[in-house]
Amino acid sequence: VRTNVFPRPAGLAAETAAALEPLACVVHGADRVAFERAEHVVLLGDGPIALLFAQVARLRGAGRVLLVGRHPARLAVAAALGAEPLEDPGGEALVEAVRGWTGGTGADIVVECVGRPEVWEAAPALAAVGGEVLLYGGCATGTRAGFDTYRVHYDEVDLKGAFHYGRADVRRALDHLVRGEVRVEPLITHRRPLARLEEALGLAFSREAVKVALTPSG
Question: Is 76:98 a contact under the CB 8 Å cutoff?
Answer without folding.
Answer: no
